[in-house]
Design brief:
- This protein is an alpha+beta fold.
- The chain folds into four domains: 2-53; 66-79 and 317-386, conserved putative lor/sdh protein from methanococcus maripaludis s2 fold (Beta Barrel); 81-89 and 237-314, Efflux pump adaptor protein, beta barrel domain (Elongation Factor Tu (Ef-tu), domain 3, Beta Barrel), CATH 2.40.30; 99-236.
- The termini are far apart.
- The longest helix is centred in the N-terminal third of the chain and has 39 residues, at 2-40.
- It is built from five helices and 21 strands.
Length: 387
């Protein structure tokens, strides 16, 4: 029994001696892994220095923010009024004949979209009937002139005979055949008038217009019989083509006096020059805008109904500033910086240009703020940066 106990104690002693060795091995491996991990994650000297500088950097004043500002200068600026408009025609007419007849010829230019010159023949009516009328009227005139000569001869003979018989008396009108002579004169005048009418009708068989124009519509064909007063086409006078530009009362006031001011019209690829010729005397009831009528310098390549953008050259204004669009705040106001503090002003806006806003000169302090300022309020302390 003692031997058995001794063997048992020996076994236990052997187990007790093995456990510490395994635990030491595990602990050593774990320790090596931990050391390797923390060695890999250890901050570098640069990181330590950067961390130190962040912690020691001074804090900005919470009441001051950085803003972008630009200084403005008072000087002379040319105002330009911009807008849109359309091409209109002041004089378009319906074509009718002053006589009746059959069409025998139509010009190739007298077609829809065609162009014609002043006095150019557009259409011809069969002239034969009218040529005969002229010949008849001429014959009637010659007959009337012959009758007059006969009446005149008879009158002179009667006056001579009466003077022989009654040398001391005046010749009575009836004896002198004065009424017959006056009637013969009237017949000549009447015949001459009929001849002139016949000649005028003959001229009208060759239809033309006293202005250069374009054809809106043509309804005449060779062989067609046209009655007096019948419409057979529509044209417009190219000299009556003009540009119509709506304009607000505010912009119109800037342009005064508006008549005579130059303008540039842009039709896309085509650019034309124009001059303000007239201004409507009243505002449009619907838009509350006035109308500018511009005379065009060249209408060869444009058509009525065309739309365009327009730039009208206005006056040169002294004591004005050019305000960047980014400086505009609500209700046409601006923030300025004065002694590093914000101040809200409302300068007088004159006109908006493509490159800024022309305003009356004002005291802009140390500069005008560009863009919005979060939480901006009067007296806020700011630090400016060049705009």
């Amino acid at each position: 029994m003692n031997d058995s106990n001794a063997r048992g104690k020996g076994v236990n002693r052997m187990k007790f001696n093995r456990l510490p060795i395994g635990a030491i091995q595990v602990t050593a491996i774990t320790a090596i892994a931990i050391i390797a991990f923390y060695s890999a994650r250890a901050p570098s000297e640069e990181e330590i220095l950067r961390s130190s500088s962040i912690e020691t950097a001074p804090q900005k004043n919470s009441e001051s923010i950085f803003v972008s500002a630009v200084a403005l200068k008072s000087q002379e600026h040319t105002v330009e009024v911009r807008g849109t408009g359309s091409v209109v025609v002041r004089n378009s007419i319906d074509l009718v004949l002053q006589l009746s007849g059959r069409v025998v010829w139509v010009s190739e230019t007298f077609r829809k979209g065609g162009s014609f010159d002043a006095g150019q023949s557009l259409l011809q009516i069969d002239p034969r009937d009218f040529e005969l009328a002229v010949a008849q009227a001429e014959a009637d005139r010659l007959a009337a002139e012959s009758n007059y000569q006969l009446a005149k001869a008879e009158s002179e003979a009667a006056i001579s005979n009466y003077a022989i018989l009654h040398p001391e008396k005046d010749v009575p009108p009836l004896v002198a055949k004065t009424p017959q002579l006056e009637q013969a004169k009237a017949q000549i005048a009447s015949a001459l008038a009929r001849e002139q009418i016949a000649q005028l009708d003959l001229m009208r068989t060759d239809f033309s217009l006293p202005f250069a124009g374009r054809v809106i519509d043509s309804q005449a064909e060779v062989g067609q019989f046209l009655n007096q007063g019948q419409k057979f086409g529509q044209v417009f006078d190219v000299a009556s083509v003009e540009a119509l530009v709506p304009i607000s009362p505010r912009d119109l006031a800037i342009l005064e006096p508006a008549i005579g001011r130059r303008a540039t019209l842009n039709f896309g690829e085509l650019e034309l020059q124009a001059t303000i010729a007239r201004v409507s005397p009243n505002l449009d009831e619907r838009t509350r805008f006035a109308q500018l009528y511009l005379a065009l310098e060249n209408v060869t390549d444009i058509y009525p109904g065309s739309f365009f953008n327009v730039v009208i050259e206005g006056p040169r204004l002294e004591n004005t500033m050019l305000l960047p669009e980014a400086a505009e705040q609500i209700n046409e106001s601006v923030w300025i910086v004065s002694d590093n503090k914000l101040k809200l002003l409302q300068p007088k806006f004159i006109n908006r240009q493509t490159f800024g806003i022309i305003v009356e000169s004002f005291d802009s302090g140390d500069g005008v703020i560009l863009g919005t300022v979060p939480g901006a309020k009067e007296g806020m302390i700011v630090t400016t940066e060049p705009g």
